[in-house]
């Protein structure tokens, strides 16, 4: 019988072909999930007409998916550290496939919302287990490139989602946006089953923290729902404030339970790692400001430049391709030169990118838009892959599941918070600049006021990103200091 050490060695050194076949399957799965999110958001107006429902109701088609992802992401991550990651990933693919079939055949909006919950559960397992499996399969010197490829595939999904969705809806109808997932997911299931090795867990014999799981699910779902409510009703909304209060109380109870548990959902000691904590905080900051940019740009392109929805989608898709191309390159560079310096360079480029797009005005040309956005998108690509590699590399192998979950959670919390804050900020600035009455629809604002609000919003993001730059600079300094200490110790030993 092999020892745990030997089994772990076998896991992290699979055959070269199997390793890359597994990468292909995980990449396909990530692509399908990313495209699905973007297609469904695009299809919401069509769903209102086809299912004879209201905007308030149809929002739950997206919201139910988001809340499930937020609520169960850390639960899935903990299960990944306790159970076999391969079979959890396969379970996620199967759930997502079944959910896609049911969504594509849903008779009404109520069933569609319920089936989206099933899809969301599958997507959580796919997202969390996928990154953890990649981190296990690929050695440290290849991890950056591997995670960079996955990040690049995700951005291809972001870029192609609106275009693919528009074609499917116009040619066949909304049901195909769900059913198209099925054959692709089945291919991924077969590849995973045949190529991904079983994982070995040292946590398998530990009990599952049910109380902690319930509390963190309540905390995250209430927080995500509150941020969504803020987008629609503002921070003064009684519902949003109640949800935030519930989230805060649940989080406080969760921390108490985790501190006393023998088998906690999250071992709070892992946050003593500056590399992990600062890495997650930087990811949250970048996710927040990027969500804000994605929120504002359509208003500028459609209301100021008077571009059509199709033209706006095309421009956003084209610029996202640069991130997709740079992400795997940045991952490879991080394997060679270290993740800290590459991610720091990426953040600096993001700052210059935001300063560049803060000059958008009525005279902006398509070429001018693309050139300014390239700087931002390249910076984003140079940050995300090295950051993912650094976070995953800051924990021991038995904590890869929870590290992957925390990374995904940072993205979700950053996006939901960023959208809520940006929506409130942009609405406030537009109202002030246009001298409009409070709660007036900002689409009624004059173009000059919209331009000024866009520019001010993008400049507002710059000092926020500077916080991430300071954190990245500190981590780079800390890394160099440790390297120098190790070299000094080695020199003393030799002498």
Shape-level CATH architecture of the largest domain: Up-down Bundle
CATH fold descriptor of the largest domain? Growth Hormone, Chain: A
Biggest sheet, open or closed, and with what strands and sense?
Answer: none
Give the N-terminus to C-terminus distance in angstroms.
43 Å
Can you identify the CATH class of the largest domain?
Answer: Mainly Alpha
Report the sheet-strand fraction.
under 5%
How many beta-strand elements? 0
Overall residue-averaged pLDDT value: 81
- Estimate the helix proportion, in percent: over 70%
Notable traits:
single chain; 495 residues; mainly alpha; Growth Hormone, Chain: A; 3 domains; 82% helix; 0% strand
Description:
This protein has 495 residues and is mainly alpha-helical. It has three domains: 11-205, MFS general substrate transporter like domains (Growth Hormone, Chain: A); 209-262, no CATH class; 267-495, Growth Hormone, Chain: A (Up-down Bundle). Helix content is 82%, strand content 0%. The radius of gyration is 23 Å and the shape is globular. 49% of the residues are buried. The model is unreliable at 1-12 (pLDDT under 50).
How would you summarize the topology of this molecule?
Elements: H1 4-12, H2 16-50, H3 55-82, H4 85-104, H5 109-137, H6 140-171, H7 176-179, H8 181-195, H9 210-233, H10 238-260, H11 274-304, H12 309-337, H13 339-357, H14 366-393, H15 400-433, H16 447-494
Quick rundown:
With 495 residues, this protein is mainly α.
